[in-house]
């Protein structure tokens, strides 16, 4: 197979998933709405203790982002599994890991990117100083793709189970923890005004590592789930 | 494609002593056969005798417990995607996206496989009797029309072997006859097929059928 037809298969699949997401946009809003609601409820629950809100702010945003990602994961392969499209992908003349990468990218564009876009507003709500908002944005743009990539392996393993939701959370949440730790630490450090290069480098390393490894692991897991 | 596809040795799909176990039950063991160009393998047997499992094994989706599958003399699991460009699979599920139109579904199917030269997507839809339905969401088509769309998918790739699991489900009598002509066309072009069906197949006499009954072995 030539490289050209592989790239066209990649973009075809990416476009397909975006079109499908657009045609079912009501479901699309769910993760973002969850993210906004959870973060917006915190200041109301804590009261007018601005010091405390400021201290928990980065953690709240990131925990909400993580749970929103988890909430949206199941939809990554579910409908393709149910209607038989997944079997067709596995029988494609192209490497499955590349096709999987297209699906993960589409999933992130639809569920991860909106979180990144609304985050500055929520940061203001949680009293995070303006100087730390760029760092928060950076952690989100580096961290949320990692969540989608790692999550895809878990989803691929559980897609064949009738009720895989709980197992998926147990499987995937521990792997999300490093992202959570380094991302919130980066934001907290930025609030104090110390450089955050170290944490951001580690997040970038996680992104690169999962970008290379996750699609292959996902392709293998899908093969197991279907056989 | 491969060097050995010379006229003297036509490409064959060969299965050697396959064993399939499902839920601790042996569905079939020591099953060997080969399919050559122009031939169709027809699987028969009771419900639950392993017809679908065998077809999924032939696709490479499911692994046999033991045994070998050779495409043109090479193990299909070693060939991987290189083998996949030769097969088109029509399973129980259509594999079409209900939110997309028939045309969009076919475009994706063509992109995933190795496109066949000289056939437009509209032409393939016309051949299965879906002309005029190309821009309607697949969800709004009837069950039989959705099955026809799945069959159209077979026509647009360059696959040599068609693996068909109950291809005639929800088709009307006329539709079945029409699809049989399409399958014959594929076999006459030197294609191969492996299929299960509860319907009595009305292929023309010159088509060579290899029948295997899984419940009488």
From TrEMBL, chain A:
Tell me where in or outside the cell this protein is found. Answer: Cell inner membrane
Q: A GO BP term, please?
A: cytochrome c biosynthetic process
| Molecular functions per Gene Ontology | heme transmembrane transporter activity
Membrane topology type, per the record?
Multi-pass membrane protein
Query: Which residue windows are transmembrane per the record?
Result: 31-47, 59-77, 113-130, 136-159, 166-184, 190-214
**Which InterPro entries does its entry note?**
Cyt_c_biogenesis_CcmB, Cyt_c_CcmB_bac
Give yes or no: UniProt keyword Membrane: yes
The cross-references to NCBIfam families, in alphabetical order and at most eight, read: ccmB
UniProt family annotation = Belongs to the CcmB/CycW/HelB family.
Q: Which UniProt keywords apply?
A: Cell inner membrane, Cell membrane, Cytochrome c-type biogenesis, Membrane, Transmembrane, Transmembrane helix, Transport
Name any GO cellular component annotation: plasma membrane
Q: What does this protein do?
A: Required for the export of heme to the periplasm for the biogenesis of c-type cytochromes.
This one is known as Heme exporter protein B
**Record-linked Pfam families:** CcmB
